[in-house]
Amino acid sequence: MSTADWPYPVNEFKCHLCGNCCRGEGYVEMLEDDIERAAAFLGVSDEGFRERYCDYDRTEKMWHLIDQGDAEKSCIFLNKDNTCKIHEAKPYQCAGFPKRWRPENIMDFCAGWRAAAGLPPADEKRTMSED
Ligand code: SF4
Ligand code: SF4
Questions:
Q1: Residue minimizing CA distance to atom 6 of ligand 2
Q2: Residue 126 falls within a domain, yes or no?
């Protein structure tokens, strides 16, 4: 969804730490820069980071983060309090969300944008697809 089509002031967005954008279907793509930055932040090698935290999608030809193996498919770096373990070095895709890019169904799960629109928090855990 482009910013031009977005009816709410992006600069006033406040994250409510619901964590819904870090769970569910979909991938966090890891570009080479993302891997280097996150690996350095955690003090591991790039190769070690790939082995421990990533999978390679042969169809899409990209590295992506794995999940925790839980029912909600929580990102491997999502803390119990819905903060991000690699916040200071988070991937480009995550850093741009939800101001620079948003999926069409963002109002189904993002507490911050729901609040900005005067809607109550959503109960459901998100199912996200990038537009
Ligand atoms: S890397 Fe951090 S911000 Fe990105 S999905 Fe995982 S927990 Fe969320
Ligand atoms: S879904 Fe929205 S409010 Fe919830 S953690 Fe993500 S950005 Fe913040």
A1: 21
A2: no
| Number of the ligand 2 atom closest to the C-alpha atom of 126 | 1
Q: Report if residue 121 sits inside a domain.
A: no
Residue 10 located in a structural domain: no
Over residues 40-88, the pLDDT tens digits come to: 999 999 999 999 999 999 999 999 999 999 999 999 999 999 999 999 9
CA 51, CA 80: separation in Å to the nearest integer? 23
Q: Which residue minimizes the CA distance to atom 5 of ligand 1? A: 22
Select from 10, 13, 17, 23 the residue to mutate for testing ligand 2; criterion: most ligand atoms less than 8 Å from CB: 17
Nearest atom in ligand 2 to 20's CA: 1
Distance CA 98, CA 47 (A): 29
Q: 91 is in which domain, residue-wise?
A: 17-116
For 131, counting Cβ atoms within 10 Å of its Cβ (0-12 exposed, 13-18 middle, 19+ buried), the class is exposed
Report yes or no on 5 lying in a domain: no
Q: Note if the pTM is more than 0.70.
A: yes
Give the closest ligand to the alpha carbon of residue 13: 2
User: Which two structure tokens, joined as six digits, stand for 39?
Assistant: 């690996």
Note the residue count of the chain.
131
